[in-house]
Design goal:
0% strand, mainly alpha
Length: 202
């Protein structure tokens, strides 16, 4: 984040910021990204549209920041001593209800990204890159422990595999992803691809 953006957002208290983000997510669930307007956000949050633009610059940044605000930011801090334990712990950061809500939000935003370059850019900068950084820390520790070969070809596709299991659950099975599903998916697909055994302690 730039210093200008940091200073721009610092005028709003954390409590007010959380309130605004919650309202944005409510609107996003109700009408979708394309139909969501800054006018609607201003009305819902009793803010001026000028204030919203001053703080976030536009709809894409505001929406992605709202999604990011509700997501755990501790991937890189997870260190159970095994990769299996780390990935299972990652799944446990959110309960099934939150996972289902996030899945619905992400499907709606993913569709909108096809036609919105500014949304794609904000999504990658604020969500994809931080999560990739966290995953890289987890994987680096697994390599250092000798669990995963550094030249394992599946390493380049770890995030693709994780996102794939999360995103396709609703598409293929018409069910939301759950902790149980994602944990089983990790054991059946992700860890074997990385050459990691799924037996023994987590």
């Amino acid at each position: 984040m730039t210093e200008t953006a940091t200073a721009r957002r610092s005028r709003i208290t954390p409590e007010r910021e959380a309130e605004l983000y919650a309202a944005v997510l409510d609107l996003l669930r109700e009408v979708g990204y394309d139909a969501l307007t800054m006018d609607a956000v201003a009305a819902r949050t009793r803010s001026s549209k000028a204030t919203l633009y001053r703080q976030w610059g536009g709809k894409a940044e505001l929406v992605v920041r709202a999604i990011r605000h509700g997501k755990p930011d501790r991937i890189g801090e997870i260190d159970t001593g095994t990769l299996r334990g780390d990935l299972h712990s990652l799944v446990q950061l959110e309960d099934d209800c939150t996972i289902e809500q996030n899945s619905a939000l992400m499907r709606g935003v993913a569709m909108a990204m096809h036609n919105n370059a500014d949304l794609r850019e904000a999504f990658r900068a604020q969500l994809v890159e931080p999560e990739m950084s966290g995953f890289h820390q987890v994987i680096r520790r697994a390599i250092d422990r000798g669990e995963v070969r550094q030249d394992c070809p599946a390493l380049d596709f770890l995030l693709h595999m994780m996102v794939g299991g999360f995103a396709t659950r609703a598409l293929l099975d018409d069910q939301p992803p759950t902790r149980a599903f994602l944990t089983s998916y990790i054991d059946a697909v992700v860890l074997p691809a990385l050459g990691v055994t799924t037996s023994g302690p987590r």
